[in-house]
Structures are given as C-alpha cells and as structure tokens.
Amino acid sequence: MTTCRASCVFAIQIILLGFSTSNALSFGRYVLLASGQESPLDWHARGIGIGCITFAVALHMVLPKWGMRLNNVLGVFKVIILTVIVCAGFAALAGRRITDDPHNFNDAFRFHSGVHDGIAWGMGGASAYATALLRVIFSYSG
Prior knowledge:
The protein is mostly helical and about 140 residues long. Helix content is about 70%, strand content about 5%. The protein has a domain at about 110-140. It has helices spanning about 1-15, 20-35, 40-60, 65-95, 125-140, and strands at about 110-115, 120-125. Strand 1 and strand 2 (about 120-125) form a beta hairpin. The mean pLDDT is about 75.
C-alpha cells in the first residue's frame, strides 16, 4: 500500500512541477496559434494545457494499455518528423532549395543585435548557440 501512495505522490509532483506543466502550456499556446489567434491569452492556453494533462492522466488511469499505445504512436510520429527534418536539412545542404540562399551562416559567430516587433534581441555568438541548443533539448524532452 505504501508503494502505491509513493507512486501517486511522485506522479502528482511530476505532473504539477515537472516538464509536463510547461509542455502542456506550450501545447495550449501552439493550439491557439494554429487556430489563427495572433496573441493568445495565457488563461486560454492554460485551460487547454489543463485539459491535455487531465486527458492524459484519465486515459492512463482508466485504460493504461491504450495510454501506452498512444505514447508509442506519438513516439513513432516524433521520430518520423525528426527524420523528415534531418532529410530536409541534408537536401538543403545539397543545394535542393526552392528559395534563394538565405546566408544564415555568414558571420555565424558575430554578435548581432536589434529590435524586432518592439522587443530587443541579440543573435549570433557562442551564447546564442548554447541557448538554442538548450531550447532544442528542452523542447524534445517531453
């Protein structure tokens, strides 16, 4: 009985304080952006995120086999999408682009700064590459 309680406490802690919370909030924002809203409200995104987490928890509580099947299907989908991205990158390196060369890697380690949409930003340099790497790792951790 104590094993079940410990598992439940651990699961609640992971859902409320772990990566699931930020991933669900990001999911809610992406759903709202995909639906055509240019500046989604935080509470709408939070509501969608809460619904997403509630669905996942309820599915794993009621139908654990189907929950694992859904996890496997989404995992395969993720690997397929990553494979397409890698292949598209290799195709772009080979020169198979529809658009002109954007010169993204000219002076790649020079620090650029400016203002875009009223927000000050800095691009380039080793710090920007480290930040980008951390964001990519975080986005695929879920």
